[in-house]
Amino acid sequence: MAAQTEESDTAREQTKAEQDVDQVRQRATRDQQRLDSGAITSPKDLENLQHEIASLAKRQGDLEDIVLEVMERRESAQERVAELTERVGAVQGKVDDATARRDAAFEEIDGEVATVTKEREVIASAVPADLLKLYDKLREQQGGIGAAKLYQRTCQGCRQELAITELNEIRQAAPDTVVRCENCRRILVRTAESGL
Length: 196
Description:
By secondary structure, this protein is of the alpha+beta class.
């Protein structure tokens, strides 16, 4: 924006400077025509007119130098605008690409969530209501994990090895008994790798 504003400002400045040069040129042309026409006969008036023409020529040269300086600044501003526009385009391309990848990832995640949610509903329908209620309560308390695998005498929820007395109690419990970790209170899932 700043580069575009600078370019726009220098364009206006150039237009004004060119108009000033044109005004001085037109006035010098009129004065030269008056001088060449012979309509002025007074030596003093002729001398004043010649002096004014010389003064206008100097003024025109000064104004043309200003026009050139403004044109150089405008050209520099135009180059800067072009460079920045290109960079903005490149960055916008990267943003668009990242946005498209993010949206695709969200879509994929939403699909996975829908699939897992359906799977959970099927599995949850086979679990007794009181056990499901306990599991959901523990999940809420334990940061999303309500049950943990018992692997080689270690609770995979809190990563604590169970005491020998706890392991003996779990060994003696019926296969359908709900057992919990004494440390984190999560439901323990027993497998062949539990180390019982």
